[in-house]
Amino acid sequence: MSCEEPHETDCSEVLDHLYEFLDREMPDSDCTKFEVHFGECSPCLEKYGLEQAVKKLVKRCCGHDDVPTDLRAKVMGRIDLIRSGETVPTEDISIARAQAPRAE
User: Domain limits at 5?
Assistant: First the structure.
């Protein structure tokens, strides 16, 4: 998604790091750049608003469940792999799906 307009911070950079912005996991200077971009770019602002609403909904609906420590470690490991640009092994996903309890 891009508005086709030139910006100091490119739309692709904003969208690639949107969750880091939402979670405040980036330096304040980068947050400020993103806020300026949202003021200039309505498509990115719309995407930001949508993702923010989804995040709030998930927190409201699922925010009270305790996450098993091993699951949290696996998820954080995957996130680190993705951020570093490494390939995420798909066989782990297949095994996890096969082991997951099925709803009847």
Answer: 1-64
